[in-house]
Amino acid sequence: MNHRLKRHIVLIGMMGAGKTAIGSEIARRYGVRFTDIDAEIEAAAAMTISEIFDRDGEEFFRRRETQVLSRILAGPPAIISTGGGAWMRPQNRKLIADSGLSVWLNCDLETLWHRVRQRSTRPLLKTADPKGTLARLIEERYPVYGLADLIFHSQGGDSVEASATRLIAEIRAADPDLLEPK
Ligand SMILES: Nc1ncnc2c1ncn2[C@@H]1O[C@H](COP(=O)(O)OP(=O)(O)OP(=O)(O)O)[C@@H](O)[C@H]1O
Ligand SMILES: O=C(O)C1=C[C@@H](O)[C@@H](O)[C@H](O)C1
Ligand SMILES: [Mg+2]
Prior knowledge:
- Pathway: Metabolic intermediate biosynthesis; chorismate biosynthesis; chorismate from D-erythrose 4-phosphate and phosphoenolpyruvate: step 5/7.
- It holds the Pfam family SKI.
- This is Shikimate kinase.
- The structure is a single chain.
- The protein is α/β, with parallel strands linked by helices.
- It has helices spanning 19-30, 37-45, 49-73, 90-99, 109-116, 130-145, 160-174, and strands spanning 3-5, 8-12, 34-36, 79-81, 100-106, 150-153, 179-181.
- The strands form two sheets. Strands 3-4-2-5-6 form a five-stranded parallel β-sheet. A two-stranded antiparallel sheet has the order 1-7.
- The protein starts with a strand and ends with a strand.
- (3R,4S,5R)-3,4,5-trihydroxycyclohex-1-ENE-1-carboxylic acid (SKM) is lined by residues 15, 38, 49, 83-85, 122-124.
- The site of (3R,4S,5R)-3,4,5-trihydroxycyclohex-1-ENE-1-carboxylic acid has 9 residues, from loops.
């Protein structure tokens, strides 16, 4: 059924937390727009994120990420999936707070590792000990992710569909007017 979003719903969290999977499922179900910031960065640069990191470095990528996030947030309300590091910049947190509800998809290390271990698309995990890197990023980031408006506890055994249903209920409880039928 088609719905209207009053503000953006901005999904934050680690690589593999399900921002893209759950975000696109919710958007499909409610007929609202879904935007993935990583995909927007890649489209604007006509390069993959790995290529941007390799050629121009992480700092350059982070500046691009803020520009793209700012452009998407200025557009019509959408469900937005951010890259894992986006929420760590205070400037990005301010941009998100000004126009959306931030939702952290909180997921444990073992579940994340199970989901990302096969992927070669995430430059930050191209290390000698990717699981250790993931654990270190979790330690650094979780206190900051915890500043989100809503914390969704992802349950490892749940399907994407079940998680999307539970997340919608939690979003409705946090802000009953955010997602309304057209
Ligand atoms: N309950 C669940 N919630 C979310 N994802 C799940 C769940 N169960 C299985 N998955 C699978 O886990 C993967 C989650 O990856 P996804 O790309 O959505 O994460 P992400 O947060 O967007 O990561 P990235 O920052 O790397 O883009 C998907 O392949 C999805 O199908
Ligand atoms: O966790 C991170 O810092 C990143 C996650 C990805 O979504 C990409 O935005 C990029 O690979 C950086
Ligand atoms: Mg994603």
